[in-house]
Amino acid sequence: MPVEINITDKDIEYAESILLNEDESFKDDNDERISCIKNLETIDLHAVPGSGKTTVLLAKLLILERKLPFKDGSGILVISHTNAAVDEIKNEIEEYCPKLFSYPNFVGTIQSFVNQYLAKPYFK
């Protein structure tokens, strides 16, 4: 059974307080950023550079971390192609998200995930 998670407006305000300046908000004309943060399905984000994709991802991670540990023991998996993206995530939110960066959660590159969970266990 999937974990039941509800992302509220208070959760969004919490993320805004950490990630945005005082005069900024995730609200926009179509509430696209807020609907993306609240969406817990698999989605693809297509937007121009500088539009806030990474900030929306960071907001979602900040919010989800507060709801850890999940009742079913599952975790959050964030995989990137580059160390630069992983470093950006860690630099921005690691101090607020200690649970996100520990088991059963994983934030890292595809290569580090394969090494940790596939290659090393196979060779043992």
TrEMBL record:
Entry-linked Gene3D superfamilies: P-loop containing nucleotide triphosphate hydrolases
Domain of life of the organism encoding this protein: Bacteria
Pfam families: UvrD-helicase
Swiss-Prot/TrEMBL keywords: ATP-binding, Helicase, Hydrolase, Nucleotide-binding
Domain UvrD-like helicase ATP-binding: from-to ranges: 42-122
InterPro entries: P-loop_NTPase (IPR027417), UvrD-like_ATP-bd (IPR014016)
GO MF, one example: hydrolase activity
Stated name of the protein: UvrD-helicase domain-containing protein
Organism the protein comes from: Halanaerobium polyolivorans
Lineage: Bacteria, Bacillati, Bacillota, Clostridia, Halanaerobiales
